[in-house]
Amino acid sequence: MVSHRKILNKHREHFEKINEELTEGLSSRIALIEDIGNHSLLGHGKRLRPLFFVLSCELCNYRGNDLHKLSTIFEYIHTASLLHDDVLDNADMRRKKPSANNVWGNHAAVLEGDFLYSKSFSLAVGSENLQFLRRLTETTTKMAEGQVLELIHTHNWSISKGEYLEIITAKTAVLISAACACGAIISGAGEEATQSLERFGLKVGIAFQLMDDLLDYSASQETLGKPVGKDLKEGKITLPLIYTLPTLEGAKRRSLEELFKSSRATDEDYRDLIALVKGNGAIERILREARSYTEEAAKCLSPFPESNVKEDLLELNRYVVEREY
Ligand code: FPP
Ligand code: MG
After folding, report:
1. Could you write out the DSSP letters of every residue in 245-311?
2. What is the number of structural domains in the chain?
């Protein structure tokens, strides 16, 4: 079993440099920006995206000396998107702490997201690599589209698995995919390596969000660092529920839909629904699917010769489906 502690210990040097660069990049003449940035960025983040970028660069023999600085682009974009997401979701908790919108209000949280988002692009401009910049702008455009699609499907109990997969690919997987592909791009590794890493990251990213949505039903709030059952409370119909609904008798399904679309659902109703999902085999089914994405991801790296860094990427890939938060 790969734990985050194991990943942290193995890549301690990378993590330290990434954190140093993150802190440096946060500096602003406005104290509030630094305060919200410190609160949102430093602490419990897993730093998966910067690490995927750093390892992808190493896999492609990157020769520059700004590896860790460039890696923060992916953490800044990720954190900016979470700041905005928590406003959209009206979330109280993030990374085991009160969310920024909870502490400073929606306006400040959105603006901090804008600051980090701009920061990421000013760092990217520093690379003077147009292909790198193009990949980033395509990525953030897709993320915004994914988020809008999710908004359109709020409370849609008839959402299909295909529509769900389209959303999670756009809102989550494309950023992990970009972190990997950009490692190849910035190293000048060529089209084949870029495409292999892009596909690898996309599969990893889909597995990541499948796990995120599964943990929302199967984990405890203590390990997860945010309340469980949160997706349904936000009107998000994710795969655990999509798989459970067809197993229910029509009248039962309709009454549940009516109850959860209204504001009448109690904590006990949520607990019952979570138990129903858990009792219907949906969790095991999704776990199998997430693992199969992980296996497909691993195959995408087959064009690269065996090496320690390739092993590290494969280990990070396995961690995504073994994580508990
Ligand atoms: C978390 O999902 C949210 C995302 C992965 C993406 C959010 C994207 C945007 C707000 C649009 C793009 C914005 C920028 C600045 C590029 P979740 O709500 O399922 O996860 P959670 O349970 O951790 O909140
Ligand atoms: Mg959210």
Report:
1. GGGS-HHHHHHHHHHHHSS---HHHHHHHHHHHHHTTHHHHHHHHHHHHHHHHHHHTTTSPP-HHHH
2. 1
Q: What are phi and psi of 190, to 5 degrees?
A: 95, 170
Portion of the chain with pLDDT greater than 90, in percent: 87
172 lines ligand 1 (CB under 6 A): yes
Give the distance (Å) from ligand 2 centre to CA of residue 77: 15
The best mutation among 74, 75, 81 to test binding of ligand 1, ranked by most ligand atoms within 8 Å of the C-beta, falls on 81
Q: Is there an atom of ligand 1 within 6 Å of 143 CB?
A: yes
- For 302-317, what is each residue's pLDDT tens digit? 999 999 999 999 999 9
Element (H, E) at 213: helix 191-218
pLDDT of residue 229: 84
Nearest CA to ligand 1 atom 13: 81
Average pLDDT over all residues of the chain: 95
Cα separation, 133 vs 238, in Å, equals 32
Q: How far, in Å, CA of 166 to CA of 1, rounded?
A: 30
Q: Which of 299, 302, 300, 297 is nearest to 321 (CA)?
A: 297
Q: Give the whole-angstrom CA distance, residue 17 versus residue 46.
A: 14
First to last CA, the chain: 14
Decide: 84 in ligand 1 pocket, CB within 6 A: yes
Question: Are 40 and 55 spatial neighbours (Cβ–Cβ below 8 Å)?
Answer: no
Range of the domain at 63: 4-322
CATH of the domain at 92: 1.10.600.10
- Which atom number of ligand 1 is nearest to the Cα of residue 84? 10
- Mind listing the pLDDT tens digit for each residue in 135-153? 999 999 999 999 999 999 9
pTM equals 0.96
